[in-house]
Automatic annotation (TrEMBL):
Family note: Belongs to the class I-like SAM-binding methyltransferase superfamily. RsmB/NOP family.
SUPFAM superfamilies xrefs: S-adenosyl-L-methionine-dependent methyltransferases
Protein name stated in the entry: Sun protein, putative
UniProt KW Transport keyword: no
Residues annotated as catalytic: 367
PROSITE patterns: SAM_MT_RSMB_NOP
GO molecular function terms attached to this record: RNA binding; RNA methyltransferase activity
InterPro entries, per database record: MeTrfase_RsmB-F_NOP2_cat, MeTrfase_RsmB-F_NOP2_dom, RCMT, RsmB-like_ferredoxin, SAM-dependent_MTases_sf
Residues the record lists as binding S-adenosyl-L-methionine: 269, 314
Pfam families cross-referenced by the UniProt entry: Methyltr_RsmB-F, RsmF-B_ferredox
Matches recorded under CDD domains: AdoMet_MTases
Organism lineage: Bacteria, Pseudomonadati, Pseudomonadota, Gammaproteobacteria, Alteromonadales
Domain SAM-dependent MTase RsmB/NOP-type: residue ranges: 155-417
Amino acid sequence: MIAAISLYGNFLMLNSSLSPSSTELVISILDLVLKEGKPLDRAYSQHFSGLQLEPSEQGRITLVTGAILRRLNLYCFLSDVKPEEMARMGSRLLNVWHLFHQLPLPKMKYALQVDEQELATRIETAKQKPVLWDGCPDWLDEMGQAQMGDRWPAERAALNKPAKRFLRVNTLKCTRDELAKKLRNERVQTVEVEGVETALEVVSDSALFRTECFKKGWFEQQDAGSQLIAKALDAKPGMRVVDACAGAGGKTLSISAQMEGKGRLLAMDVEQWKLDNLKQRARRAAAHNVETRIIASSKTIKRLKLSADRVLLDVPCSGLGVLKRNPDAKWRDTPERLPVLVELQKHILQSYSRMVKVGGILIYATCSIMPEENRHQVDAFLAENKHFRFIEDENISPAETGFDGFYYAKLERIAEA
Ligand SMILES: C[S@@+](CC[C@H](N)C(=O)[O-])C[C@H]1O[C@@H](n2cnc3c(N)ncnc32)[C@H](O)[C@@H]1O
């Protein structure tokens, strides 16, 4: 059945019903995430590996799964299904989701039916409850209200929108104009992003990773807000730069391009598999000045004392700024993990800041919008470390920018101690 209904603006369309097997996959992925606490990206790879799905079908599955998770409590309420009942009752929730979005019902072998009158009544009830309507769990709403006050309702609403697709042009290989033109030839439509000169927003429903441009390393998929963090570091060719929580290198590659591939860029992490992934990406991007190093103990950091012109600390965080992209974090043990993360952030900031040389710049960054992980951490650090001076900070707000939510603070070391 062809519906050709644009669900979310012009970049992702659900233009046909899911096939029975795709519907089963959505239910099974939801079950894995909600019952076993599996992170969404790993649940996708577990389900997709070895399946040989068309990229478009895979795209539809992730679109529907992501959309359900962004407002899970709403769809659970509307369908009267509990998150942990997904394997048994998921077909009803999926039918409700389609009816709610005025889409034709998917074909399923065994589907629990929906009473449309009852659904209409429930929709009216839900409209009166903004927290439920925005797909926000109660713990998150309480935290947002307590930490962000009047700014919270707009952020809460912004965080249930689908994430836009952004690219970062790899300026080691081409300009933004050249990339946009090449992508157009490969039927990928993009528009420039105001205020982020390395970013393009993808506005067509196209598979990106099969393009020649991607294979040649002309771009990386990276949120525009994340690109702003790397830009704030202001790394110059020839500098000594440390990206101390580099992960798979999203920001490392951005920094390497800023440095025009010249100088020394040390990417570190506590997970070797992430650094291995980073090395591969760096090769494709021709980011030849990147060196990776595992953080085996505190000695790895001590050896680099007072050595770096720039240090980026993109610390582990709750991810509460990137819920559009990772909506599963709302339904996992995030509130229980938060105090542990806050302690780890404090430790990393205190200990890794030793690597910055006098006159050097430190960027502390998170993909959270909660002040507890952001400005509060920076204020506490500055109170105890008078040899650092505050330069500026920025909250990158999903509500104001349409990007993911990030925070960064820029500090300068003004004395050895
Ligand atoms: C927010 S992610 C980094 C994302 C990455 N910078 C990017 O742009 O793609 C935080 C990273 O910190 C790493 N990490 C966790 N504990 C750490 C520690 N004690 N020291 C350094 N890195 C740590 C995690 O493995 C994770 O890769």
